[in-house]
Amino acid sequence: xxxxxxxxxxxxxxxxxxxxxxxxxxxxxxxxxxxxxxxxxxxxxxxxxxxxxxxxxxxxxxxxxxxxxxxxxxxx
Length: 76
Known about the structure:
Oligomer: single chain
Mean pLDDT: 82
Distance between the termini: 36 Å
Number of helices: 1
């Protein structure tokens, strides 16, 4: 479980208000290469998940993260 308010200092709050977004970063080590499932549950009613970025290496830094990935199933 990831706590979005784990680092809730005054400086973090100022950045969150200024950017109108809260960045939460977590790292996981997977035991072996295979299919994995990422599940997201609503725990706090006031929390909105707008973007989820999975970095498998090579992610370039940017202000609001990378653009949405292309997915063939979503093509008209």
